[in-house]
Amino acid sequence: xxxxxxxxxxxxxxxxxxxxxxxxxxxxxxxxxxxxxxxxxxxxxxxxxxxxxxxxxxxxxxxxxxxxxxxxxxxxxxxxxxxxxxxxxxxxxxxxxxxxxxxxxxxxxxxxxxxxxxxxxxxxxxxxxxxxxxxxxxxxxxxxxxxxxxxxxxxxxxxxxxxxxxxxxxxxxxxxxxxxxxxxxxxxxxxxxxxxxxxxxxxxxxxxxxxxxxxxxxxxxxxxxxxxxxxxxxxxx
Length: 237
Known about the structure:
alpha/beta, four-stranded antiparallel beta sheet, 9 helices
């Protein structure tokens, strides 16, 4: 396991967003985290990253306890993150965004080579000088994915990476993530789009009311009657 949580709990006031979560991601897999609105997906994501501190429980990354480490320290150990809303500098060029992302990690030839590699990976050739805010929504998302992977993380965290994308952009994003995964990057994606989940996921975890409701392969989750119930709002009768 590259990442494990043990007995992870978090509440905000009277709301439990994480209840005794025992969760793990195997090195080299693409793992999707799904569930209805309010299930606790984003809260678990932020606990893993360190944006929230748990009330109790443990988070292990590469067998090291990182439970109390701040986000920047986890990133230095090999995590990287892309949130749902693009965090690019819209008035700066594509190239300037990449330089800002990589300048504390890379210098000289290594920096230039990484920028060229990421531009090609994200399909942004010829757009390096354009202001990032003028790119299409899909390309802005791809730029930020490139910004997240340029430092070659071990674990990439993606919060709804295809939000607002067209079906074709969504498919292309899935292909990009498959390429990254083949290069050795483990991926955890919070996602709503089940066709995208089917395209990329090796395993899926379903959250409901801050608890793990089901885990398994894509096919096991699709065929799980309880999962359909919570998504469609069926009663418990």
